[in-house]
Specification:
Helix content is 34%, strand content 27%. By secondary structure, it is α+β, with helices and mostly antiparallel strands. The protein folds into 2 domains: 98 residues, Ribosomal Protein L22, Chain A; 107 residues, Alpha-Beta Complex (Ribosomal Protein L22, Chain A), CATH 3.90.470.20. Bound molecules: coenzyme A.
Length: 225
């Protein structure tokens, strides 16, 4: 199977007995523990999307899938399977990247958050990213900031180490024809071995990170519950 990017608007997914039946007992208990209805629904929708997409790809019943998490909380299939995934959720969008490649990450944000994220830039972006940002016309900076944010998150998530990875230890540079990653030696990685793609899905931006040779533009598929 080639790498695929799946998306769904969680608000279109209904809480039905059939949806709940896809979850493990532990996931159903976790689902009940969420107090804000929106978070509770997001949790259910994520489990349904991940289990359905992986179940189809592996040709197994989705409710039989089991998961574990690494030391930094990244979920993976257990026992290990020839298929890997990473998910991201934000208001109005849930995305799941599925691939035979274990080194993948995805992140999404609402484009409307651009100005808020620009305000956070000094705390989260690397010095090179900040100087590139400052060199842009003022009207383009917020747009760059939201894409940069999702690219940085996609890389963090592909590395599987969450916030243990220093945010100023790696920098995305925007060349005219591609996005390039520079990594400080402390992070023990080679930026050139990564490829990144950006997709705009309606009012959301989505960035993906994948290690390995350049792939064609990812197929983007809508999930129909
Ligand atoms: C832990 C982290 C992955 C959370 O990311 P997030 O942007 O808040 O949330 P997302 O919706 O994109 O991703 C959450 C999903 O990532 C997955 N995930 C959790 N830990 C992960 C890890 N260590 N590595 C990869 N994926 C992880 C999970 O599937 C999770 O969803 P689930 O809990 O429903 O299963 C991490 O990157 C983080 O804490 N970021 C904080 C935000 C920040 O300051 N970013 C700066 C960007 S410049």
């Amino acid at each position: 199977m080639s790498t695929q990017l799946w998306w769904v608007n969680p608000e279109t997914m209904v809480v039905s007995p059939a949806a709940l039946a896809l979850l493990s007992e532990q996931e159903r208990a976790q689902h009940q523990r969420f107090i804000p209805p929106k978070k509770r629904h997001e949790y259910l929708a994520t489990r349904v999307l991940v289990r359905s997409v992986l179940g189809r790809a592996l040709d197994v019943e989705p409710q039989t899938l089991q998961f574990t998490a690494n030391a930094w909380g990244r979920p993976t299939l257990w026992p290990p399977a020839p298929l890997h995934f990473n998910v991201s959720h934000t208001d109005g969008l849930l995305v799941c990247l599925v691939s035979p490649n274990p080194e993948i990450g995805v992140d999404t944000e609402r484009l409307a958050r651009a100005t808020d994220l620009l305000a956070l830039a000094p705390n989260v972006f690397a010095p090179q990213e900040l100087s590139d940002l400052a060199a842009l016309p003022a009207g383009e900076q917020a747009h760059r900031a939201v894409w940069l944010w999702t690219l940085k998150e996609s890389y963090i998530k592909a590395r599987g180490m969450g916030m243990a990875l220093a945010l100023d230890g790696f920098a995305f540079r925007f060349d005219t024809d591609r996005v390039r990653l520079e990594v400080s030696p402390a992070l023990e990685d080679d930026g050139a071995r990564w490829q990144f793609q950006t997709h705009q899905l309606g009012l959301h931006c989505v960035s993906t990170a994948m290690a390995g040779p350049m792939e064609d533009l990812l197929p983007v598929r809508q999930f129909h519950p």
